[in-house]
Structures are given as structure tokens and as C-alpha cells.
Amino acid sequence: MRSIRTSAPRRRGRRSTPAATGLVAALALTATACGGSTDDKADPKKPGFGASQAADGGAGKAQIPAGIADNLEEHGIDVDKWKAGGWQDWDKGKWLSEAGNYVNPVIEGLWKPERMRSAEEADKTLSTKDATVAQGVGDPEPGPVEAQAEQTPYHANAAPVGKVFFDSPEGTSVCSGTVVKDVNHPGRSNLVRTAGHCVHAGGDGGWYRNIVFVPAYNDLGRSEAELSNANASEIAPYGNWWADRASTSTGWIEGGVQTGGAGAPYDYAVLHVKPEQGDKSLEETVGTALAVDFSAPSAAGAGRTGAWGYPAAAPYNGLRTFKCLDAPGRFSLASDLPSMHRIGCTMTGGSSGGGWFRVVDGETVLMSNTSIGPIDNTWLAGPQLGRDAEALYQNMSRTYGDR
Questions:
Q1: What strand order describes the sheet that includes 305-309?
Q2: Contact (Cβ atoms closer than 8 angstroms) between residue 351 and residue 358
Q3: How many angstroms separate the CA atoms of 269 and 250, rounded?
Q4: In this structure, is the dihedral angle defined by the CA atoms of residues 126, 132, 137 and 143, taken in order, positive or negative?
Q5: 3-state secondary structure at position 220
Q6: Alpha helices of 307-366 — where are they, by DSSP H?
Q7: C-alpha separations of 300 from 16, 129, 326, 327, 331 in Å
């Protein structure tokens, strides 16, 4: 979760039916008792929607699709050397930043349980002076909503939810993500939604490296002590899924900063993933996926909303799934930026990228993702997913969904 400081609070193949029912029940219980806008600069005709693949091929060699090898060579990248440790070179002159330059070859065995547990949230703060800029249309700040631990096992209650791990210049980092449906490949989705700042550093950097999605991470919600000798299947019951392609908005790539900044309203991303081992799709493996709602109302008309994620900053430790349930309001960082959704929630860094869900006609759908929140962790804000967010999603689906 990206954090901003204000004078007051500030930002920051198993059973599919039970998992979906669990999310619906949580939202329905609260109702009776928890993106891009049209101003986004992203254009589906521009490379901002494309992501390059660097996937493993035969004999351990990286197979680079036509047109990409030359691009990598231009940036001085040898994929075999990259996989052998060259990815740790964060020379700014060679840090791939443009949308079409993404490369993430599978490095089998890199993300072991202990490395996952060492990952930290990339929580940042913004000075009070910078945070008190003129704001656009917004609703009163919500009261804090205490995050609730999700029931275990996660595969039966929140199967689409997982953790996104990646390497940044600061070290191993972690966010949250959600398995979403692929409308052009029903039942066989390999798509994951998360935040743009979980895959790309924004205007001052480029694509992060070794991006992996782990659905239902720590499925039984075990403690740190209980996981000290855990095997890979206990940590990652569905395995590790490498993002062979990633897309985020041009608005984030050009305007995103460590604290969100002007890129915050466009802070969303779509990953196309592949298993480290195996050949079944992510949706078939997990047993479920959520539809994406690109038409959610901008204020309380969205109804009760739930945010799910793996908060990692104190008082949480990133090992368990939590959720916050509230009615969303509007929030904007500046008068010339689109408003975002905002709910009360005490989740901290690490919950970034986690899905926001609502129920439409009895179906749980994803309507946003966690982007920013205040330093005292009393609320969360996420982008509205509108026309441009849908175009980005459709481009990823149509271009790479059958691979």
C-alpha cells in the first residue's frame, strides 16, 4: 500500500463454489449488519497495453518471441545471464521502463518459502505539505474499520486472493492480487489483477523483476512459528505463477511516484501468468476466478464493498488474509485528477493490489484494488476501473490469453 501523510489520517482445481460463496456471504452479511477513468492517458493502440514475454523453453533456454529479442539486446540484456543473477543489476540506464519492454523469464526455485517470508511491503510516506494540495470532489473521510481475519482454509473462503512477490532495488517486496476471469477464454483464465505500483516503479523507474503470484498463500493461516519448517505446498498450495506478461496504465507509468502522486487514480495492473510447473490454467488450478466490474458507481451507489489482502506492516506480518467491509465514498488527491473509491480500513502495507469486491445480481465481482492510504492506516483508496482499464484488460486477454 502506498502511504501519504496528512494532518489527520492518511493512505496507503479446488472447489470454486465454496470460495465464491464465502465472499458473497461476507458482503451480504455486511449489507444487513466491507481504474482507470475516461481521463486516463492510456491508449489501447499504444505499447502501453503490451507486455513482452520471456518464458522458459526447451533445454532450459529462454524463448523470446519475434521482435522482443532485438529489444532486449538494445538494452544490453542477455536472458541466460539475467536468469543466472543478472537481474540484480539495477543500473538506471538499463532499467526497462516502457510498457513494451517488460521481461520476466522464469527462474525456477527462486521463490522459496523463506524468501517469500522475507519480503517486505514497500510502504512510503508523503510530507504533510505535499499532501495538503487542493483536492477534487470528495466525500467525508470514513471512520476506521477494523480489518477482520479471513476464515481458513482460504481455498474454501477466498480462493481468488493471493500474494504478489517481486524484486525491487530495495529488495524482495510483496503486494496482494486477485485471480480474475478472462472473458475471451472462459474457464481458462491466467489473469491476475493488482496495483500498478506492484509491477512498475512509475515515472522514476521501470518494471520490477521476478514477479510471481501465489494464490491462497499460507492456505491454513498458520503462524510464523508453525511455518518455520513448512514445505512449499503449505506456503503455496497452488504453486508459483510467474508473470510472463504485465500491463499497467500509461497514467501510472508516466505519473506514478513512490507515494502514488498523479498516477494513483491509474494505479492498476493486469498480469498474465504461467505456472512454474505444470500446464493447466490458473483458473482451472484454483477452481474459481472473479469477473471484473468496469461500471461500478463512483460513490455510495456501489453498495457495500469489501477489500481483501495480505497486510504486512505492523501490527500484521503478511502471513494471513484480512478483509475490510464498508460503503465506499469518493476521494481525490487533486482537483484535476479523477476521484478514487475510498473505504474505512485498518489494513497496512502489503495489502496493495488486493481486490475490492461487491455483489451484483448475486455474483461477487472485482471493482477496484488497494492503492493508497494514510499513515495512521484508517482508510484505503483504490482507482475507479473505467473504460481505459477495460481496454487494458481486453488487450491483455485478446493478445496473450490463449498462451
A1: 148-149, 322-326, 305-309, 355-360, 363-369, 291-292
A2: no
A3: 11
A4: positive
A5: coil
A6: none
A7: 29, 29, 10, 6, 12
Residues of the chain with pLDDT under 70: 2-76, 122-137, 299-302
Q: Which residues pair with 322 in a beta bridge?
A: 149, 309
d(CA 341, CA 293): 14
Cell representation of residue 365: 465481482
Q: pLDDT value at position 41?
A: 36
Phi, psi of 224 (to 5 degrees): -60, -40
Report the b/e string of 106-137 with b at 16+ CB within 10 A. Answer: bbeebbebeebbebbbbbbbbeeeebeeeebe
**pLDDT tens digits, 56-92:** 333 333 334 444 455 556 666 788 888 899 999 998 8
**pLDDT given at position 301:** 66
Yes or no: say if 160 and 215 are a contact pair by the CB < 8 Å rule.
yes
Q: What integer pLDDT is reported at residue 136 of this predicted model?
A: 56
Question: How far is 191 from 366, CA to CA, in rounded Å?
Answer: 13
- The answer to whether 349 and 372 are in contact (CB under 8 A) is no
Express each pLDDT in 109-124 by its tens digit.
999 999 999 998 865 4
Tell me, what's the pLDDT at 121?
84
Q: Tell me the β-bridge partners of 287.
A: none
334 C-beta neighbours (distance < 10 Å), count: 14
Which pLDDT score is estimated for 20?
Answer: 54
Give the count of domains, the chain.
1
> What range does the domain containing 147 cover?
2-400
Residue pair 322/316 in contact (Cβ under 8 Å)? The answer is yes
pLDDT at 125: 37
Find cell 505492523 and name the residue.
314
**Confidence at residue 197, expressed as pLDDT on a 0 to 100 scale:** 94
Count CA atoms within 13 Å of residue 385 on its CB side.
Answer: 32
The 10s digit of each residue's pLDDT in 93-104 is: 888 888 888 989
Q: Is 63 exposed, middle or buried (0-12, 13-18, 19+ CB in 10 A)?
A: middle
